[in-house]
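**User:**
Everyone, produce one record:

**Assistant:**
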Amino acid sequence: MGWEVQETVPVQIELANGYKTRSMGECKQAMVEIGKLKLEIDALVFDLDEVDIVLGMAWLNSIGGMWVDWPQQIMHFHFNQEQVKRKEQEREGGRWL
């Protein structure tokens, strides 16, 4: 993604599928595009195999309420006074919402 990774104290996470990994650093003010939505975030960097990005609790908390249609894998939320709807999509080398 071309981001500058700064060294930090490693953070260990476990994904819902049981995969465990430790962070490799942090990218401050990284620009992320999810469809038409552009976000500037502080991102911890992990080796996540087939997943490109995990929206952490800090970011999810910042947007307030959200509704997830789990069977359809669609997230609905408001960001910058706009309604956002994202569905998981397959792409070469990974998946994204």
Q: What stands out?
A: Residues 12-96 form one domain.
